[in-house]
């Protein structure tokens, strides 16, 4: 499966996960409210039953309305039992819904991260593909001498030898300079004798991938600049001179 199809599939799964998480969140809210209402009803019933038992004790002391108070206590006590069961069931349902919502949220987060990585990879491939298909005309080749104007082989070898020597020295000096530069970067900003260390904030660079996408959204081809051919010269070692033995 190519990256574009994989990203599309991932986006479809992400959309499905978003819907599932949204529904799970609604269910969590609904069951939590239901559990809260059931707990409130149970609390009110228990409070009423406790009040009825106090009234029964008062009626027993005074001998007035004791039978009615007993009936009231029995009725309210009996009412508490199913309310307690309903509250317990509602609480269990709310707990299960909360766990399901958290699971759905975690799955959504995981898929979102995967989809983001897949989309970034696809964007890079699209930008690269646009770059390959939207190259401008290749730059002009190096101006080379025609065959009749070529210098002698000895002269070419002399220039090549000098180039090889200077190129080797330049690379050696560049490597040595990089070592010294790396050491100097440890020094903070300031003046140290004849040395002044300063750091200039870096600027910004053009985001090629975003440019390619913006052009693609408008149906345009992003501008590209072709690279020049790499120029290399290989110099073989000069043959050693062989001295003829003396006669």
Structural commentary:
With 247 residues, this protein is an all-alpha fold. Helix content is 69%, strand content 2%. It has helices spanning 3-62, 66-133, 153-184, 208-217; strands at residues 190-192, 195-197. Strands 1-2 form a two-stranded antiparallel ribbon. Strand 1 and strand 2 form a beta hairpin. It is elongated, with a radius of gyration of 43 Å. The model has no long low-confidence stretch (mean pLDDT 84).
Number of beta strands = 2
| Sheet with the most strands, sense and barrel status | 2 strands, antiparallel
Unreliably modeled segments: none
Query: Alpha-carbon distance between the termini?
Result: 80 Å
User: How much helix is in the residues?
Assistant: 55-70%
Count of helix runs: 4
Rg (CA only): 43 Å
Brief sketch in words of this structure:
The protein is mainly alpha-helical and 247 residues long. The protein contains 4 helices and 2 strands; from the N terminus they run αααββα. The chain has a two-stranded antiparallel ribbon.
Keyphrases for this structure?
247 residues, mainly alpha, two-stranded antiparallel ribbon, 2 strands, elongated
